[in-house]
Amino acid sequence: MVVAPYPSGRFRRVRRTRALRRLVRESALSVDDLIWPVFVRDGQDDETPVPAMPGVSRLTVDRLVKAAREAADTGIPAICLFPCIDSSLKTEQCEEAWNPDNLANRATRAVKDAVPEIAVMTDVALDPYNINGHDGIVRDGEIVNDESVDALVRMAVAQAEAGADILGPSDMMDGRIGAMRQALEAAGHKSTCILSYSAKYASAFYGPFRDAVGASGLLVGDKRTYQLDIGNSDEALRLIERDLAEGADMVMVKPGMPYLDICRRASDAFGAPVFAYQVSGEYAMIKAAAGNGWVDGDRVMMESLAAFKRAGCAGTLTYFAMDVARALAQ
Ligand code: PBG
Predict the structure, then answer these.
(1) Burial code of 220-253, b = ≥16 C-beta within 10 A, e = fewer?
(2) Which one, of 78, 90, 70, 69, lies nearest residue 31 by Cα?
(3) H-type helices in 115-259, by residue range?
(4) 111-162 residue pLDDT tens
(5) Residue 128 and residue 212: Cα distance in Å, rounded?
């Protein structure tokens, strides 16, 4: 890098006007970068607000379809579905997870029928269906890996069958990407994308989400035996490399803003699309501060998303997606 000494070099010259600043901006957020996570519940023409996430509700499938239509019309390329499952359907073996007619699969089909142009992403993890709130099957107090992978593979194939464009394995079991990819190929789902939650940390920022899907009360213990330790960075890169080698098309770092260093390292290290998940707790913090008048909510929202682009991400999953898309359209 060449830097002319002052006064030949004056960095402020290109910051003087908005036009000059726009010309030299290195990265810019676009509506193409947004994946919108949406919570789905059973019922008809109704919705239930999520307490710690102002502006976010669990939608019945018909309202979800309307929301997907609006998102597509605003230019958002993808939505990500998270079902809130009735507690009567939760079991130890999580059988509801691969029921072709479960809430998530019905929601996928409804959206793909009505709004075919929007990409539907789904979540592959057992927690919505698990009596103990874990992402894998629990046996004698242990989250058992290989049996969980078998269940996750059945779940993934059922989601592909329902028409999901992108599967999002968020479970953090070992070997699941390779097993899913093989099963998808064998079942003829050769074009189904996998966006692996490769570097998913054992984070306290998921609190509001667990409330939203009704998993918090149930969770026995914590997820530290399968989610990534918050002190690790090299391990995140090894996990991403492993998942790409097993057949993931895209990878994710989660949470987002506290892990921007991982986003940057991952996008530098691999030529693959890296996504960040700006999770429920990050959304809740911004909303709470904005609601109190402590920060300018709209500007902080846009700045938080610009950070992911600057860190090299191909895109971001964010509960702000509709607000950002509208702001960008202005
Ligand atoms: C569960 C899952 C979680 C999130 C997405 N999928 C929570 C968890 O791992 O406990 C978190 C999303 C958020 O906090 O917004 N498989």
Answers:
(1) eeebeebbbeeeeeeebbebbbbbbebbbbbbbb
(2) 78
(3) 145-161, 176-186, 207-212, 234-245
(4) 999 999 999 999 999 999 999 999 999 999 999 999 999 999 999 999 999 9
(5) 11
Cα–Cα distance measured from residue 152 to residue 38, given in angstroms and rounded to the nearest whole number = 21
Q: What is the pTM of this model?
A: 0.97
In the structure encoding, which two tokens stand for residue 73, read together?
């019309």
Q: Are 145 and 174 in contact (CB under 8 A)?
A: yes
Dist CA 258 CA 102 (whole Å): 34
319 CA: nearest ligand 1 atom: 15
The best mutation among 152, 195, 209 to test binding of ligand 1, ranked by most ligand atoms within 8 Å of the C-beta, falls on: 209
**What's the Cα-to-Cα distance from 124 to each of 4, 195, 215, 283, rounded to whole Å?**
53, 10, 15, 22
